[in-house]
Amino acid sequence: MTKYIFITGGVLSGLGKGITTSSIGKILQARGYNVTAIKIDPYLNVDAGTMNPFQHGEVFVTFDGGETDLDLGHYERFLDVEIPKYHNITSGQVYYKVIRRERKGEYLGQTVQLIPHVTEEIKRRIMLVTKREKPDIILIEIGGTVGDYEGLPFLEAARQMKLEMPNDVLFVHVALVPLLSTTGELKTKPLQHSVAELRRVGIQPDIIIARAPKLLDESTKRKISLFTNVPVNAVFTSPDVDTIYKVPLILEEQGLGKYIVTKLGLEPKEPKLDDWINFVNSLEDSKDEVNIYMCGKYVKLHDSYISIVEAIKHAAAKLKIKPNIIWCDTEEIEKDHSKIKELDNADAVIVLPGFGARGVEGKIEAIRYVRENNIPFLGICYGMQLAIVEFARNVANLKGAHTTEVDPNTPYPVVDITPEEKDIKELGGTMILGNRKINIVEGTIAHAIYGTTEIVERHRHRYEVNPKFFNILTEKGLVFSAWRSDVPRVEMIELPNHYFFVATQFHPEFRSRPLHPHPLFVALLNAAYSKKQGLPSPWSRVLVR
Ligand code: GLN
Q1: Is the Cβ–Cβ distance between 386 and 360 less than 8 Å?
Q2: Bridge-partner residues for 480, per DSSP?
Q3: Do residues 314 and 521 lie in contact, with contact meaning Cβ atoms separated by under 8 Å?
Q4: In contact, 491 and 457? CB cutoff 8 Å
Q5: What is the CATH number of domain 287-543?
Q6: Which end of the chain is more exposed for a tag (fewer CB within 10 A), N or C?
Q7: Distance from residue 431's CA to the centre of ligand 1 (Å)
Q8: Catalytic residues
C-alpha cells in the first residue's frame, strides 16, 4: 500500500521546501523504504522550459527529457534515483488536459468544473505514479505558499485524498518562524496564520516543520502546538545550515523519521545513514582550497546553476578539497576588458550553459584566456559551442566565426541549428532533450576520465557543431572525443596539449550525486588541485598516443 506525504509551505516561498522534502525522503529511504517524490507547480506554464532562470532558477532536465522545476534535482540528488518528467505537475498541464478532454466531448455534456474535474485530473496524475512505480512512499511537494489562488485546486485534491485514504495520507507543513533581531525572540504568529489558512481549506497538518534560524525551544514548540492543533512532539525545526546535505541528519536527530513511520503505520526500522554522514563530514572537513570560476550570464541568481554547484561539491567531497565558487559575469568582461585578468586567480574555469547573445563575447574571451594560459577548463553545452567558436576564430583563423544562434549571417557558422530543429516555431519542449547514448573515442582524455567508451548523458540544446567544419577544426588540433551514437554529432571536445581543456555538448551536472560524483567534475577538480600544487596534469599520460 503506497503512502502519501503532502508537503505544504507557509508564510513565504524560498524556504527550502524542496530540501526539506528531499530530506524527509532521505530519512525514510534510509529505513529501507522505496521513496519517490512529486513536485506540484501551481503556475500556468506547462513546464519550466520557457521560464527565465533569473526568475525561477535552473531548469532541471530529467532523463526522459522533461524540463522541470529545480526541486526535482534535489530529489534526485538526495534520493539517488532517476525521476521521470511526469513527477512535475503544473496547473498548465492539468488545465490543458481537462480542456482537451472537454473539446473531445469526453465529459458527456457535463458542466466542467474545478471540483470535481480539475481535482480528479490532479489526483489521476498523482495516482499514475503509484500505478506505474508502486513505491512505498510518495512525497508530494506543493509549490508556492498556502493561500495562493493557484494552489487551491491542489490543496483540495490533497484534502480529498485524505478523506479517501485516511490512514495513508500525511500532511507536513513547513513554515517560517522568524527571529526578531531586536528582542532575540522567535515569532510564531505568521506560522499560526498559515496553518489557519490550511485548516480553512479543510487540511489539518499532522506535522509542523518550522524553518527557523535555530532549533526551537520547548516553549515555542508548545505555543505552536497549541495554536495549530498539532501535538508538541510533531513540531520539528529545520534550522539554517551551511550545507543542505545536513538537513536529513538534523531532522532525523529530532526523531522525525520515527514519527512519520509510526504515524503511517509502517514498520519503524533503524535508518542507515552512515555513507551520508561520511559524505557530509568530507564536505565539512576538507581544507585544501581551489578557486572555481563560473563564467556566464545568469550568475546573479546562483540557483540558475544549482546542479553545477552541487556537482562541484560532490566531486570536492570525494577528493577531500574545498571549492571556492566565484561567479564571473561575462557581460562585465565585455564592458571592461581588464577584468579578464581576474581569471589568473582561477584554479579552474567553467563556462556555463546559456542561451542568446548576452555575455557571449565575454565568454569567448574567457575561453581564449584559459586556453592560452593553460588554466583547467570545462565548457558545458553553450560553453562547448563557444569553445568551438573561439577555436575557429583564434586558432583556425576563421575570422567572424560564430554560432548562428547569435549571428545568423556569420561567414563561418561553426555552430548551427540541428536539422530537426530548423522548421520548429514553438519554443517550449522543442530542443534535443534528455538522455542520448554517446560513444567515446578510445585513447582520449574523455576515455581516461570515464574509463568506458559507452555513456549516456542528458541534453538540452538546439544547436550543434556544424559538420562542414569538422575537418578544419581537427586539422588545427582540436579533438572530438565523443559522438552521439545514433547521428554524427559532436558530444565532447578536448585539447590534448592543454593542462585540462574539456567541453561537453551534454549536461553532466544533472547526473551527479553526493555519493556518486560525476567523473567530469572529479576530473576538473583534480586538475585544478594538481595545477595549484605545481604537479603535471593528471591527464597528461593520455597524451602519449
Ligand atoms: N543555446 C545553446 C543551444 O541551444 C546552448 C544551450 C545550453 O547551453 N543549454 O544549443
Answers
A1: yes
A2: 493
A3: yes
A4: yes
A5: 3.40.50.880
A6: C
A7: 9
A8: 381, 507, 509
How many other CB atoms are there within 10 angstroms of residue 115's CB atom?
12
Instruction: Judge if 3-278 and 287-543 fold alike in CATH terms.
Output: yes
Protein fold of 3-278: Rossmann fold (3.40.50)
Kindly state the cell numbers that stand for 339: 577584468
Mutate which of 60, 330, 462 to test ligand 1's pocket (most atoms within 8 Å of Cβ)? 462
- The C-alpha angle 258, 260, 264, rounded to 5 degrees, equals 120
Within 10 angstroms of residue 258's Cβ, the number of other Cβ atoms is 16
Ordered by start, the domain boundaries in the chain are: 3-278, 287-543
User: Any idea which residue has 581544507 for its cell?
Assistant: 287
Ligand 1 midpoint to CA 405 (Å): 9
Q: Model's pTM, two decimal places?
A: 0.94
- Atom 1 of ligand 1: nearest residue by CA position: 355
Beta strand segments in 383-477, E: 402-403, 413-417, 432-440, 454-461, 463-465
292 alpha carbon – ligand 1 mean position (Å): 22
Give the model confidence (pLDDT) of 476-533 as tens digits. 999 999 999 988 899 999 999 999 999 999 999 999 999 999 999 999 999 999 999 9
Helix (H) or strand (E) holding 212: strand 207-212
How far apart are alpha carbons 124 and 160 in whole angstroms?
12
Cell readout for 145 is 505558499
Ligand 1 shell residues, CB under 6 Å: 353-355, 381-382, 385, 405, 460-463
